[in-house]
Every structure is written in structure tokens, then in C-alpha cells.
Specification:
Helix 2 crosses helix 9 (260-271). The protein has one domain (43-283): NAD(P)-binding Rossmann-like Domain (Rossmann fold). The longest helix has 22 residues, at 145-166. The chain contains nine helices and seven strands; from the N terminus they run H-E-H-E-H-E-H-E-H-E-H-H-E-H-H-E. A seven-stranded parallel sheet has the order 3-2-1-4-5-6-7, sandwiched between helices. The chain is globular, with a radius of gyration of 18 Å. Helix 5 (145-166) links the parallel strand 4 (126-129) and strand 5. The chain is α/β, with parallel strands linked by helices.
Length: 293
């Protein structure tokens, strides 16, 4: 198939009232299964934690990790229908999956996530910090303290806490992959606080990579561009008449939103021995936007 047959160049206007969004309500459904991707055992018997793994990019990562032989722990906030579907996808790939419903904005829950992983599998080889939250505001004065704190707790504080706890069990050859965003490099005026968290994630990735290099634990990040995930209709679709959703992704050189299955291979690469000389780096699946960083 040609690219135009595989991936839609636009999506219809739509809204979701539930914050974070539900993948099963999106039209069209994001493409996450990557039927063209053939597993080759790159992650065989590895134990991988993926936060925010129930939908969007997290679901696509979970499926490819399972296809490569990893055993999964998937944490999610409250999107039960999406999480159960992702669990089915992982099991269909012939792998194991532990679903953990948890609010990672709370430090104790981050600690419990690691404890549950060790109780289930006895090891942690790959940590993917991927959970996200964003709120759309045209004026910085409209960002209230509750939203500001929640965005940082979800995107950055949880990443920090989970990494702290996970490192007690991670050994030489383990790796950490953090989800940032193109907004850390190009900015996004409608997402001031979200953009700030992604800048923090990039800096955190670089500093931690330097600290852990002597322990031979690699730390990298992925900074996706406009990807069709539940965050989009739930963030930008509050007003069904708004063009923010229907025009999503048209401002990049490829003139379309990306799909989760187009991002997930970056996470496979960074988790595998193929990336043995990569640490402190960021991959940019963003439809052609040049970031020069």
C-alpha cells in the first residue's frame, strides 16, 4: 500500500469531554498494530514497564515490545476499556501483561508500581516513562494552579519518582526511555505548562544519562510530533466547531498527523542492543519538522 492508503491526511472534527480521552471513542481509530512490523526476538524475556500504556503511543509500544518477546507491565489512570483492549493485544502477541490501574501523580503509587512489577516478574529491564497530560489555554493567565501541578505531576514528577524506585532493581544493560515532545524544541503557545514539562524531560534525560553511563544503563528519549492519540480530541475538541482537531498535523512537512505505530519502532530501537551506543539522545518522529537539537 502507498502512504496515502495507509494513513489519513486529516481527521474529522470531534470532541471528548473526559480529560485524557478514550481511544475507543476516536474517529478514525488510531493505527497501532503495525502489521508490517516483524518481531525478531530483540527484547526476548525482558521485563518492560510502560506508563500510560493503555492507549495511543503507549499501546503501540506495548504491542511491539510483546512482539519482540518482552513481558509487560502497563500502568494507566482510569481508561479501563482501552487498557483491557491493550492487554488483549499483548496476549495475542504471545506475551504476558500485568495491568496496573494507578494515579501516578501520587508518589506512593509510583513506588507501588515498582513493587508490583518485582513481585510479578522479579526484574526490571526497560522503563518507558510515557504517561501524559495537557490542557489548552490561549493565555498563560488562564492556567490555574491545579492544572499546572497536575500536568507536572503526571508528566515529570511521576517520571522522576518511578525512575528513582526502578533504579534499585535495574542492572547493567537496562535502559530508560522517556517520552518528551516536539514542543520542547519548537514551543507551543497553547500548551505552555505541557511544553515546560517536556523541556524538563529532555534535560532530565541528558543529566541522568551522564550519571548512569558508568553503570552501563542507557537513558534516552523520544520527542513525537503531532500523533493521533486520545489527548488530541480531549484537549483540542472542547468546542466541536473548533478547527484545532480537524487541522491537526497539517502544519508539518508531511501534511498529516502521525499514527502511534509510526512512533513505536523508535522505542524498540532504543530498548534493544541496536542502540547500544545511544545514551542521552532524543529521537524525533515528527513528520519532518526540523528541530536542530
Amino acid at each position: 500500500m502507498t502512504e496515502s492508503q495507509n494513513y489519513p491526511k486529516e481527521v474529522p472534527a470531534q470532541k471528548q469531554d473526559k480529560h485524557m480521552g478514550d481511544e475507543h471513542e476516536m474517529k478514525p481509530q488510531p493505527q497501532y498494530s503495525a502489521p508490517w512490523y516483524k518481531g525478531s526476538g530483540k527484547l526476548k524475556d525482558k521485563v518492560a514497564i510502560i506508563t500510560g500504556g493503555d492507549s495511543g503511543i503507549g499501546r503501540a509500544i506495548s504491542i511491539l515490545y510483546a512482539r519482540e518477546g518482552a513481558k509487560l507491565v502497563i500502568s494507566y489512570l482510569n481508561e479501563d476499556i482501552d487498557a483491557i483492549e491493550t492487554e488483549k493485544c499483548v496476549i495475542n502477541e504471545g506475551s504476558q501483561c500485568l495491568l496496573i490501574k494507578s494515579d501516578l501523580r501520587k508518589k506512593n503509587n509510583c513506588c507501588q508500581l515498582i513493587k508490583d512489577t518485582i513481585d510479578k516478574y522479579g526484574a526490571i529491564d526497560i522503563l518507558v516513562n510515557n504517561c501524559g497530560e495537557q490542557h489548552c489555554h490561549e493565555d498563560i493567565k488562564d492556567i490555574n494552579d491545579e492544572e499546572l501541578m497536575s500536568t507536572f505531576e503526571t508528566k515529570f514528577f511521576s517520571m522522576f519518582w518511578i525512575t528513582q524506585y526502578a533504579l534499585e532493581y535495574m542492572k547493567e544493560g537496562s535502559c530508560i526511555i522517556n517520552t518528551s515532545s516536539v514542543t520542547a524544541y519548537s514551543g507551543m503557545p497553547l500548551l505552555i505548562d505541557y511544553t515546560a514539562t517536556n523541556g524538563a524531560i529532555v534535560s532530565f534525560t541528558r543529566a541522568l544519562a551522564l550519571q548512569l553511563a558508568s553503570k552501563k544503563i542507557r537513558v534516552n528519549s523520544v520527542a513525537p510530533g503531532p500523533i493521533w492519540t486520545p489527548l488530541i480530541p480531549s484537549t483540542f475538541g472542547k468546542d466541536i466547531s473548533s478547527k484545532k482537531v480537524s487541522e491537526f498535523g497539517k502544519d508539518v512537512p508531511m501534511k498529516r498527523p502521525g499514527q502511534p505505530e509510526e512512533v513505536a519502532p523508535s522505542y524498540v530501537f532504543l530498548a534493544s542492543k541496536d542502540a547500544s551506543y545511544f545514551t542521552g539522545q532524543t529521537l524525533h518522529p515528527n513528520g519532518g519538522k526540523i528541530v536542530n537539537a
